[in-house]
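User: I'm new to structure prediction. If I give you an amino acid sequence, what do you actually give back? Let's try with this one:
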Amino acid sequence: MPEGPEIRRAADAIAAAVVNQPIQDLFFAFDRLKPYAESLARQQITAVQTKGKAILLRFDHRLSIYSHNQLYGVWMIRRAYAFPDTKRQLRLAIHTAKTSALLYSASDIEVLTDHEIDHHPFLSKLGPDVLDANTTIEQVSDRLLDAKFRRRRLGSLLLDQHFLCGLGNYLRSEVLFVAGLHPSHRPMDCPEDALYRLAEAAIALSRRSYETGGITNDLERAQHLKQQGHPRRDYRHYVFSRSGKPCYTCGTTIAKDIAGGRRYYACPTCQPSL
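Assistant: Good question. You get back a string of structure tokens that encode the predicted 3D arrangement of the chain. For your 274 residues, that looks like this:
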């Protein structure tokens, strides 16, 4: 599943293609949404926003298209009406004179008013967005000690979009490594400085991934390894998907395990378990 940085970059591409451009045609695959197609096609998209892993296409008459890619959804930006050769199912298409924004395979799509967005069963319960410029380290630190979250294992808590939205599986491993914490820890087990490191890493690594197209590793190290001819998979992350390889910090072999029903990677030395 794409995580917050990938969704934000997709939103940027959609915005560049369709914002403030006259819409020539708009297509919904789902019958329940087809009645909106004609009226929305007469409007313009004024902004493309993200809330964690969700995208909101804001129209000028106070309606929005909400979409969530889930596991398989993907946005493609193409020349107008230049559909790709794919077996994916087209769910939403927005065509301007020059470009088409195409959403394939996603099943979670709705047309919402502002009021419905504010009370949406998913959107209204999201935690602070790690990519939102208004989300602060102090805010995340305080949230870690909230009664709702302080007794949760970090391995599952960091995947909970009600705690923070935008984090996903690779970011979870990377954030915990930089903070020096094992997934089995709970916020209530951690000293104040460790929680601050965790909050700082959650924000910093998410924004680094957004800015670099997915790199969370130290950028100087990543650049050095790239120049040496290493493939992207070898320099992209500190620990994620690096099981059996040495930790960049201490040389210990990176281990792979399961937490919250999903794989994670950690350094047994840098991130000792309880």
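You can read the tokens as a compact description of the fold. Here is one thing that stands out. The longest helix spans residues 192-212.
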